[in-house]
Write a structure and sequence with these properties.
This protein is mainly beta and about 120 residues long. It has strands at about 1-5, 10-15, 20-25, 30-40, 45-50, 55-60, 65-70, 75-80, 90-100, 105-110, 115-120.
């Protein structure tokens, strides 16, 4: 099994910054896709930022220029630096990862989620 551990959520005032981190652990042979999603109350989960196996990086349009995705492959860790936070960014943020375990079995895992609340 592959586990994802997230950290960095919290309460922040509008205009503030927070950085999320997510570390994958377990029987990981390779990670093809890893990134961040969020789910606001009463809404569907949406992609925020994700890096694909070919290195392409995708961002939700509303966060472009404010959020920055980065990764440390040696640590199987990804980060999401979020600046100029707005109340509309309030949501539960989830880390997701998809790849191969050592026995060749595909995996897909979600973290437990971390709450982010932005006050106006």
């Amino acid at each position: 099994q592959v586990q994802l551990e997230e950290s960095g959520g919290g309460l922040v005032q509008a205009g503030g910054s927070l950085r999320l981190s997510c570390t994958a652990s377990g029987r990981i042979f390779s990670i093809n896709t890893m990134g961040w999603y969020r789910q606001a109350p009463g809404k569907q989960r949406e992609l925020v930022s994700v890096i694909n196996s070919d290195g392409t990086l995708n961002y939700l349009d509303s966060v472009k220029g404010r959020f920055t995705f980065s990764r440390d492959d040696a640590k199987n860790t990804v980060y999401l630096q979020r600046n100029s936070l707005q109340p509309k960014d309030t949501a539960d943020y989830y880390c997701g990862a998809w790849g191969l375990e050592y026995d060749g079995i595909d995996f897909g895992s979600w973290g437990q989620g971390t709450q982010v609340a932005v006050s106006s």
